[in-house]
Design a protein that fits this description.
Keywords: Heme, Iron, Lipid metabolism, Membrane, Metal-binding, Oxidoreductase, Transmembrane, Transmembrane helix. The protein is mainly α. The chain contains 21 helices and eight strands.
């Protein structure tokens, strides 16, 4: 009797052509390319710590650079292998790109493609330098000094409320509490990026203690919002950090009633928005004074509506405890007027943080250059750094190095200054402009950008009024 031949599993990898890759994506498969390998993330997307949108915005793309800088070694070396589908065969990529563009200048497109590839390769060499110099390692003494500062601020705030006898005491206390929240945000930012212990769960718990319990804000909301911001920086339709209608518009694209993929609703440019945007360069600092109240609302909405949220109950409990201790602190104040005064001052002090956050992006490009643009070029184009002396680093909390942070989001912020010479050298090497301004000059750049958009609203109003007058003249 003849035995059936034994079927031997082929050791040859499965190759997916560009056409097959795109067809599968169109049919609903969540595929990405990483180091010329294809990974299918349909089963993982709901469990992704950075949220579903962070993955969705990379579907159908080469996500190599973004994956490398956002994830620790155990993810890129081990975890991602669970989702391996096959090898990626791009075929004649240059020809496909040329055919997909409206431009007929083929040589220019090929040069652009070659340039972006060289930038990406130089960026990977830069990341290797950052790792070799130990700049991913966290020096915990930096946090020891900061904890001392935090304790002094919160202790002073409590002491002056409990033992204070004059409005001036309560005023100083409210300022100390506001500065306490302002400073805490920097460490919460580190924890959100897993930049303290580099352990997802440990840093998440640190973030909950700092953001939720001490600050009343959801670290889970921040992670979802911020990770999307890092992937689609300054994209009017996708980046929630520049979607602030009806109060601000950093691009005239927001005049078109854009649909926000983050908020899953249309951002209407109605009469209310037209009024505020027309004067946004005058109202900029005033509106930011109330920014923290908006963060409370966003945090509560996130915890009540977000699906598959890690540590939901712990976050809710921590935020309830925040309102308990803050209400208890307010109970020592002698009158309702002083309580309202205290709340407003302590929250308005955190306006500085909102200025520091918006400073990095509000004045920068909001254009979309499509699939040809490399990750590092996009980060440098849409982000600015703030030039300041080292002894002011405590004030800016690492946010003054936003370009560097966007290139290396997991590098501890205390090491960002050491990264700056390497980034400048990289930008010079590949011919990318490194945007850096002084704090006052940077504010000027932002106000100028806001004014430019505001002027466009006034022009549109004038044109509409002129057309209306023509209509009535013809009708008469």
């Amino acid at each position: 009797m003849t035995q059936s031949p034994v079927k031997v599993k082929s050791s040859q990898p499965n190759y997916l052509t560009k056409q097959e890759f795109e067809k599968r994506v169109q049919n609903g498969q969540m595929l990405i390319v990483y180091n010329n390998k294809v990974y299918k993330l349909n089963k993982w997307i709901k469990h992704h710590p950075g949220g579903e949108l962070a993955i969705i915005n990379m579907i159908g793309k080469d996500a190599t650079d973004a994956i490398n800088v956002f994830h620790p070694d155990y993810v890129v070396n081990n975890k991602i292998n669970s989702f391996y589908l096959g090898e990626y065969d791009p075929g004649d990529l240059e020809e496909d790109i040329i055919q997909s563009q409206t431009s007929t200048n083929e040589s220019e497109l090929l040069l652009t493609l070659a340039k972006e590839k060289s930038i990406s390769m130089a960026y990977q060499r830069l990341e290797s330098k950052v790792k070799e110099r130990g700049l991913y390692d966290c020096n915990y003494w930096n946090y020891a000094y900061e904890i001392v500062r935090y304790i002094i601020l919160i202790t002073t705030a409590w002491y002056l409320v409990i033992n204070g006898t004059t409005t001036f005491h309560y005023f100083i206390s409210s300022i100390c509490l506001g500065i306490f929240w302002h400073q805490l945000a920097f460490t919460a930012h580190d924890a959100g990026h897993n930049g303290i212990t580099h352990n997802l769960y440990v840093d998440y718990l640190i973030g909950i203690f700092i953001a939720d319990f001490l600050g009343g804000l959801s670290i889970g909301w921040w992670k979802k919002n911020h990770y999307i911001h890092h992937i689609v920086t300054n994209h009017p339709e996708h980046d929630p950090d520049i979607q602030h209608l009806p109060f601000f518009a950093v691009s005239t694209k927001l005049f078109k009633n854009l649909y926000s993929t983050y908020y899953k609703r249309t951002l209407y440019f109605d009469n209310f928005a037209r009024f505020f945007v027309s004067y946004q360069h005058y109202l900029y600092y005033l509106i930011l004074c109330f920014g923290r109240f908006n963060l409370y609302a966003l945090s509560i909405n996130h915890l009540s509506s977000e699906k598959n949220l890690m540590f939901r109950n712990l976050e809710i409990s921590s935020m309830i405890l925040f309102w308990c201790w803050f209400s208890y602190l307010l109970s020592y104040l002698p009158s309702l007027f002083i309580i309202i005064f205290y709340i407003l001052i302590s929250h308005m002090v955190t306006m500085i943080l909102h200025v520091q956050i918006t400073l990095s992006h509000f004045g920068m490009s909001t254009a979309d250059y499509g699939p040809l643009e490399s990750f590092p070029r996009k980060m440098c184009r849409t982000t600015m750094d703030v030039d300041c002396p080292w002894w002011m680093d405590w004030f800016h909390g690492g946010l003054q190095f936003q370009t560097i942070h966007h290139l290396f989001p997991r590098v501890p912020r205390h090491n960002l200054r050491a990264c700056q010479p390497l980034v400048k050298e990289f930008c010079d090497e590949v011919g990318i402009k490194y945007h850096i301004y002084g704090f006052i000059e940077g504010n000027g750049v932002v106000l100028s950008a806001l004014k430019s958009v505001a002027n466009q609203v006034k022009i549109l109003k004038a044109v509409a009024k002129e057309n209306e007058n023509k209509y009535f003249i013809i009708k008469d």
